[in-house]
Amino acid sequence: MGLYDKFARLAREREQFQTSGINPFGTRIDEIYSATEGRIGDQHVILAGTNNYLGLTFNPQAIADGQAALAAQGTGTTGSRMANGSYGPHLALEQEIAAFFDRPTAIVFSTGYTANLGVISALADSSAVVLLDADSHASIYDACALGGAEIIRFRHNDAQDLERRMVRLGERARDAIIIVEGIYSMLGDVAPLAEIVDIKRRLGGYLIVDEAHSFGVLGEHGRGLAEAVGVEKDVDIIVGTFSKSLAAIGGFAVGGKDMEVLRYGSRPYIFTASPSPSSIASVRSSLRTIGQHPELREKLWHNANRLYQGLSELGYQLGAHISPVVPVIIGSKEEGLRFWRDLIAHGVYVNLVLPPAAPAGMTLLRCSVNAAHSDEQIDKIIQVFAQLKNF
């Protein structure tokens, strides 16, 4: 058996994608003009398939601060946080994130993926029981596998199913780890966090919430779903990323004082090089912007509501919840691929999502809006979907 034989089916699909036009997986974006526009091949497109929720990738202050850090501190740290990779700005950012969330401790990781991997794998060892939503991100599943925990899945966003499984654990429920996400990245739906917190209060356990797609998006101050539903004190650890609302690269976790010990027990923290000085500087700038400009969230939700309403009025099948992620559910993989390419040809880039990345065997055209999209751009997206509906 060859080393790559197990990927034969994927290799055939990859070849089909490459020979039939633009490959939807690893699409080459040839130029980026702004937070909302770019070029794919010869086609100028509206970018409606990013996670740049607050539109801060071209924020002038974040760029200036990043450039200054690049000139002053170089291109990278070349070491992990445990070695030579903790510069003053890394520690300052941790203090600023902790203050933003009103928590004693924040830890900065190299990516959002390694934040989940680092926190969960350290806590969810072979002695632990983890109850996680069936639609959890791959980084959560990988973290549980790395730690060796016993994994119990509950049905997506089904608090009653979670409670049934907690009850079956008996006394073990008191030490179980429950993991959910704020906004789920494919369908844009939110966890029933208030119900989950109620279960935790009655049956015990620890609660970790991945706010990757909800940080900067939900809550009065942008702290995420836990803030939005008023249960922050009941969440033991919040994990997030710098690669979405903060428009850079890196990840973080916030929690109580006891969380500091993870610096000595988290393999991704210990063995991965830290984020570059320029990225840290840009994140610090964008974090201040989130705190000082709540109107960005207001514009984001204005755009989300307009796109959702517009596509719904056209008769498209959408996700059940209005959010900055607006998934259009398509009948088949072939139809989805054709539709995705037609969108690009008409000047709109979205994400094509196929199983297993898409839940429940769906094919999705995953649209996402940000605060920088103009009303005219949202109108153009809706107009293109209208043109292609019966094409």
Automatic annotation (TrEMBL):
Record has Protein biosynthesis as a keyword: no
Coiled coil: none
Pfam families named among the record's database cross-references: Aminotran_1_2
Entry keywords, A to Z: Pyridoxal phosphate, Transferase
One of the record's GO molecular function terms: transferase activity
Domain Aminotransferase class I/classII large, residue spans: 45-384
Superkingdom per UniProt: Bacteria
PROSITE patterns: AA_TRANSFER_CLASS_2 (PS00599)
Cofactor requirements of the protein: pyridoxal 5'-phosphate
Family affiliation: Belongs to the class-II pyridoxal-phosphate-dependent aminotransferase family.
Designated name of the protein: Putative serine palmitoyltransferase
Lineage: Bacteria, Pseudomonadati, Pseudomonadota, Gammaproteobacteria, Enterobacterales
